[in-house]
Amino acid sequence: MVFLSSSGRAIMGDDSVMNPDFIINHKFPEVFPTFAALFSIGLTSQLKYLPGFTFDPRLLLHGQQYIEIYKPLPSNCSLQNKSSIVGLHDKGKATIIEVEVLSYVKETGEPLCMNRTTIYLRGAGGFPKSSKPYSVSKYPRDQTSSKPPRTQPFAVHEERTQPSQALLYRLSGDYNPLHSDPMVAEVAGFSRPILHGLCTLGFAIRAIIKTICNGDASLIKAISGRFLLHVYPGETLITEMWLEGLRII
């Protein structure tokens, strides 16, 4: 699974040789930071069981992902996940749900990481018993989002995705047919299957580690990404980076 996630997420770019630091070497396998997002990957399949919600899963979109990493991710352990809904917003023709998942090492109870996933459900808004658009959140609205500065970026990294990128990343466990089935993609309003947002995020984090962190993935403590536009497999991603103290925007 570590191999598949690393390959599907960010190694099948222009590099002709896979980076062994994020797959396996003679000492130990090193886990890519955004692998933590897979711990909550089954959430979308459980949303249909929420009481009072009716929506077409083909119209579900991943809006934002926030990850806090409390310790280096192990390559082999049992996890225990605790999930809760921390935000619910009625947007009229859509609903936004924020789900938080805390992941622990099962044997010790030691906290490993936290995922906060924002999911956009088109066609599921307009709560009937609400006199005005309902909106509640455990966190400030813009706590995990940043606007790019208007200055020139500190660094720029360009990398081409592969035409099969979405199918390879799908093997990590995200089986949403939006990324593999042309008919589902058409219903959702796209000309063909799109790339997973988390795969795009993986490309960005890999660019940061390679360009600014000198290959040291342990420097990544928190990750936030908002998915504003879709990416088609085969397109080129340009990652622009700005330094703001210890943060990289």
Automatic annotation (TrEMBL):
One GO cellular component, as annotated: peroxisome
Gene3D superfamilies linked to this entry: Hotdog Thioesterase
Single annotated GO MF: 17-beta-hydroxysteroid dehydrogenase (NAD+) activity
Biological process per Gene Ontology, one example term: fatty acid beta-oxidation
Domain (Peroxisomal multifunctional enzyme type 2-like N-terminal): residue spans on this chain: 30-123
Domain MaoC-like, residue spans: 149-247
Record InterPro entries: HotDog_dom_sf (IPR029069), MaoC-like_dom (IPR002539), MFE-2_N (IPR054357)
Annotated stretches, region: Disordered: 129-157
Composition bias, Low complexity: 129-138
PANTHER family on file: PEROXISOMAL MULTIFUNCTIONAL ENZYME TYPE 2 (PTHR13078:SF56), PEROXISOMAL MULTIFUNCTIONAL ENZYME TYPE 2-RELATED (PTHR13078)
Protein name from the UniProt record: MaoC-like domain-containing protein
Originating organism: Centaurea solstitialis (yellow star-thistle)
